[in-house]
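Hello,

I think I submitted the iron/sulfur cluster job twice by accident. Can you confirm which output corresponds to this input? Input:
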Amino acid sequence: MTAGSVRHLYVHLPFCAHRCGYCDFVTAVGRRDQHDAYVDALLRELALEQSVLSPRLETVFLGGGTPTFTEPAALARLLRTLPEAEELTVEANPETVTAGLAHLLRSAGVNRVSLGAQSFRPHLLRVLEREATPEDVRRAVHLLRDAGFDNISLDLVYGIPGQSPADLDSDLADAVALEPEHLSCYELEARPGTRFTHTHGAELERQADALEGYFEHVVQALTASGYRWYETANFCLGPTRAEGRDLRARHNLGYWLGRDYLGLGIGAVSTLDGVRHRNGPSLGAYLTALRSGQPPARELETLDRETRARERLLLGLRLDEPLEVRGVREVVDAAAAERLAERGLVAFSADDREPTLTLTRRGRFLGGGVTAELLADG
Ligand SMILES: C[S@@+](CC[C@H](N)C(=O)[O-])C[C@H]1O[C@@H](n2cnc3c(N)ncnc32)[C@H](O)[C@@H]1O
Ligand code: SF4
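Support: Only one job matched these inputs. Its output is below.
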């Protein structure tokens, strides 16, 4: 039964100053005159869905878009009205961070900021059509520190057209020098048919073979700097540097552990009691529906037991902690699991009361390939 038990809330703030060429998220450029109305709509949607939420939330995550591009008064009103949570994260673009914004976030109870750095090389930021300079990223981190933030995450991407191994090295070194508590390093995904892929397609193809090596390099550099590689693309300060804190992203951990979550806003996804809800992407339709007190248009997908088990395996094996075999047994190809174990790519616990499964370090580098082999055909 879901009522009153969901402990993770995602809120989508779609507005951005401009659209970066590689971005495939639900965004809306500018629209300053609609920010207030959008926050009204979000709060109405929250009121409609409130009953599924636990009275004590573990995490709230404001993602985008560029949440920090939202008109400050509207953003402050939203933050004031959302339910409290143990972890309250806001995604920020470096060029939007001022002393005033950092103070606004801090005084509204935000205790974690995820900053989209992407790269520290000016020529690569230009390829990505980013507005921030490397100096903006550094300044943003310092302003957030000055405002009292002790949990900052930096996003980096690798596989940017024209990025050399030396560029990647320098990006990792520049990121680590800022001593973030957390880092997300994503391989750049370029969707076929987009303007970005059209412009950079040849270079993306040329680089494709090098990306596995880039991934290994990211892991080696960050683990050597004291970060724990706790999820395929995510790193947090490890035991020797974390001073007893668990700095994994608790909100995303909820997704990876297969927990239920509620998503509000355009394009937002919720998973509630085995049903996935996907809000439509249209800003106009969203505002109109909620203005008249109706829930937004959404697609519903019922996740049967097998689909849930497949997702659980795919997401659970991204983590560095053992996954209980119970719950995923029906989707694991036992013969493939044995073959993979012999090749040193997966490991089974022998002595735990509840049998578990983990990818070895080598298995984690191969990631998706190993999980695909492990999954029984369905
Ligand atoms: C949806 S964005 C929102 C954050 C913020 N607006 C920004 O641009 O920094 C969250 C993160 O997703 C990652 N991301 C966005 N588009 C991507 C792509 N095409 N491939 C890989 N990562 C991407 C970036 O690292 C980005 O920081
Ligand atoms: S600022 Fe972030 S969300 Fe907005 S278009 Fe650029 S990458 Fe996408």
